[in-house]
Design a protein that fits this description.
With 291 residues, the chain is of the alpha/beta class. It contains 7 helices and 24 strands. The mean pLDDT is 90.
Length: 291
């Protein structure tokens, strides 16, 4: 019924283990690099019941958190029309990143009380955190970016447009988000596929080629052209195809002579020969979701 309710339904797994003292709650549609141990250390040292990771954004983008100079949170607003400026930077406001550490001893009664409230929507941002601030010690932990770029990187990809833009940024010559930092590897599940393969080199006829793109393992570019795109594992681009500024999820097969532009193709989709997407919005709306 809401983000807080989702956690409440899993409290049994926390209650089963006696030596759990702290619970870290994360949003799964955000992209950033963060060392959670820094946050946990601050949480313990401050004697907080709850610690919320925060970031400063310019006022027109910001919402949610009011912090005093000691770092204690004294107010929490969900997308106010006029955000309150940060005490350390008047041009910015302090924003919740949706990352929280709770003492186990605090989390359980907080969620159980919220579950009993018939007027609650059982959402952390709308209901739980504003109520918690009034009764518990809630502190802010400022985000320290591990991305090693000039501008700090934290992105909410909760919309199709944000998801699309975040993926296409990765194919830039120098993307904002660094996937290739060996000192901060990204751990993820990867199935075993053969290496990507590019076949046919008939200049002017058909050529398997991908430029300014990310091509995952198991992909076969068989006489087609891929530009400014992200290909997930096990994608096949057949002869005479053109794929531009697109994101293809796993196991996609693009039929011969197809032209795809500005598209997100979902996993396991097989497009017929001569499919055209992204060139005529009126026609696209008849068959596809147009954002």
């Amino acid at each position: 019924m809401g983000t807080a309710d989702a956690v409440r339904q899993n409290l049994y797994s926390i209650k089963l283990v006696d030596d759990i003292q702290y619970v870290l709650i994360l949003s799964t549609d955000h992209i950033y690099k963060m060392d959670y141990s820094r946050m946990l250390t601050q949480h313990i040292d401050s004697g907080a019941d709850v610690t919320i990771s925060t970031i400063e954004l310019c006022l027109e983008e910001a919402h949610r958190v009011k912090v005093n100079r000691s770092g204690k949170i004294y107010g929490f607003q969900e997308k106010p029309a006029i955000p309150e400026p940060s005490p350390t930077n008047p041009s910015c406001a302090t924003v919740s990143m949706g990352i929280c550490i709770f003492n186990k001893s605090s989390l359980i009664p907080i969620l159980e009380e919220d579950a009993r409230n018939p007027t609650s929507s059982h959402d952390f941002g709308k209901d739980v955190l504003p109520q918690t601030i009034e009764k518990y010690r809630v502190y802010s932990c400022h985000f320290v970016d591990e991305n090693k770029k000039e501008a700090q990187y934290w992105l909410d990809v909760g919309t199709i447009q944000a998801y699309y833009e975040a993926n296409l940024d990765l194919v830039a010559v120098s993307p904002q988000f660094n996937l290739y930092d060996k000192s901060w590897p990204i751990r993820t599940y990867q199935r075993q596929y053969p290496p990507a393969k590019f076949v046919f080199a008939q200049e002017g006829k058909r050529m398997g080629i991908a430029v300014d793109s990310i091509v995952s393992s198991g992909c076969i570019i068989s006489g087609g052209r891929v530009v400014n795109s992200v290909l997930s594992p096990d994608v096949r681009i057949n002869s005479y195809c053109e794929v531009d500024k697109s994101i293809l999820l796993s196991h996609v097969n693009i039929g011969r002579y197809s032209r795809i532009r500005n598209a997100i193709i979902d996993r396991d989709v097989h497009l017929l020969e001569n499919t055209i997407i992204g060139f005529d919005q009126k026609e696209d709306r008849k068959r596809y979701h147009v954002n």
